[in-house]
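B., you asked whether I could sanity-check this one before it goes into the benchmark set. Here's the sequence:
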Amino acid sequence: MKVDFTRWLPAIAKDSYRKTALSVAGVAALGGLALAPTAAAAPVTSGPHQGAVAAIDLATGKAATSARQDEQPVESGLTTGSATGKPPAGKPSRAQLIPHGIEGAQSRVPLDDAQLANARAIVDAAKKTGVGDRGAVIGIATSLQESKLYNLGHLGAYNDHDSQGLFQQRPSSGWGTPDQITDPEYAATAFFTALKNVGGWQDLPLTAAAQTVQVSAFPYAYAQWEEQAADIVQQMW
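And here's what the prediction gave me:
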């Protein structure tokens, strides 16, 4: 059954960065891309990085790959947690952010300015919709899997049906118009509205909560992003 989430959502103003969605031409213009999420050390940059091709994993049918145990974690800006293991003052603890423990090997990607801006939009929407810091972790992890936190427009022949945006939401399934679902604030609000309709979502493992909303062909892939999502939320909350 198609669900029209738009009737629950207010009109959302778009600022300049929120109007930009990567088209197939935009993805191609990134250039020099790796073929899967990378765990190699990389700094936060102002432009696209080598791991950006992971943004089209879903559209091309590639399943994301987890980091191997012998690889070093990404050491870049908002991808790592507190060095002391204690959250900064006023920030949520790891126990709050990952209450059920992680499931399986974890993956990480370095983040550029566009990804950080999109992550901020998701965190802000989590606060506004009342899903809290745990909901924000689920949202960030879901977007990391679906688009690597890139706001994807229609990718033509590489598209997964009519999926677009940070969460690869489909207009044909009632998520909104292409313009709406490629607005990060709207897309995140729609995701969290749907999450709140999942009974007992707070008590579900991340992958179960995300999959109930997304109905993905790769239902267990969300779990690999829980640690990086928690680190991002802890520092942005």
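One thing to flag: The first helix runs from residue 24 to 28. Otherwise nothing jumped out at me.
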